[in-house]
Amino acid sequence: MKKFEVTVLGANAALPQVGRSTSAQVLNYNENLFLIDCGEGTQLRLDQCKIKRNRISHVFISHLHGDHVYGLPGLLTSYNHFSRSKKLTLVGVSGLQEFVQSVLKISSGYLDYELEIREVPNDTTTLVFESEHLQIFAFPLVHRVPTVGYLFKEKQSYNINPAAIERYSLSIEEMQNIRFGTSIIRDGIELPLQDLTLSIHEPRSYAYMSDTIYSEGYADFLYGLTTLYHESTYLEDLVDKAIERGHSTAKQAAKFAKLINAKRLLLGHFSSRYDKRQVFREEAKEFFEESIIVKDGKTYFI
Ligand SMILES: [Zn+2]
């Protein structure tokens, strides 16, 4: 099974504190690294977690509030000191290009490498990355400013049973088709896929939803998700404040995980008004047992 894991660099809302950084995560799929959000201090967190920044190929930004993006200009210009030669792709909502260009212009910054900035709509889903085994989609969230979440979805693929190659005299083209689950017809009869392939695992998926109010709008799109990261800035006693500020409570995050039949929920984006994060789990687990509070610097399997 290919590596599919996420390292949380920071999960504090609004501002950094000692030992609590603002939003950033590194998703590792089969040794391909993707950065999700880039709060202040992300470079230090990468160093502390021993993640080489040059290995990151894409940066996915949810929205342009400072606690999700103020680490980005520093990261981009630091690459000049790390002899980055390969292209970096930034994906985010409208305004990302202007944000990056304005900072670079005012501070006379320059980049020694190719930077592609792709802005996506925040009212529909967009396929933003595709490889042989993985698809990444941006999808709308509901917040005070244009915001998108990201879905990392493993493609279903099959390993061919070596015994079937000889038994059915499979051609190279047929083997290629079987790997992606396309049926093979012989004499008008479809060969059963289970005879042609070895046992496989369910495709895994991960969604990042921060920042957002509780919204069921894309529940169908995310149904059956393996691991959900959902913001829980507040507890339920401040639900009115959560709605007013475009955020969610731990209870709402848990309700959404249950609604989409997720296997596990990672809770994050905690308000600094709470000293102990355990209270978020206590509230969430009443509605969704597999609720986990993320810890800065910890890696979670998808
Ligand atoms: Zn925000």
| Beta-strand segment tally | 16
Q: How many whole angstroms does the radius of gyration measure?
A: 21 Å
Count of separate DSSP helical elements: 10
Instruction: Output mean pLDDT.
Output: 96
Number of domains: 2
Fold-level CATH name of the largest domain: Metallo-beta-lactamase, Chain A
Major β-sheet profile: 7 strands, mixed
The strands making up the biggest β-sheet line up spatially as 6-5-4-3-2-1-16
Unreliable segments (pLDDT under 50, ≥5 consecutive)? none
| Percentage beta strand | 25-35%
- Give the names of the bound compounds: zinc ion
Keywords:
2 domains; Metallo-beta-lactamase, Chain A; globular; 302 residues; 7-stranded mixed beta sheet; alpha/beta
General description of the model:
By secondary structure, this protein is α/β, with parallel strands linked by helices. It has two domains: 4-157 and 200-301, Ribonuclease Z/Hydroxyacylglutathione hydrolase-like (Metallo-beta-lactamase, Chain A, 4-Layer Sandwich); 162-196, no CATH class. 24% of the residues lie in helices and 27% in strands. It is built from ten helices and 16 strands. The protein has helices at 42-48, 66-69, 72-78, 96-106, 162-167, 172-179, 193-196, 239-245, 250-259, 278-284, and strands spanning 4-10, 24-29, 32-38, 56-60, 88-92, 115-119, 126-130, 134-141, 147-154, 185-186, 189-190, 205-209, 227-231, 264-268, 291-293, 299-301. The strands form three sheets. It has a seven-stranded mixed β-sheet. It has a seven-stranded mixed β-sheet with strand order 7-8-9-12-13-14-15, covered by helices on one side. Helix 9 (250-259) packs across helix 10 (278-284). The radius of gyration is 21 Å and the shape is globular. The relative contact order is 0.14. Zinc ion (ZN) is lined by residues 63, 65, 143, 211.
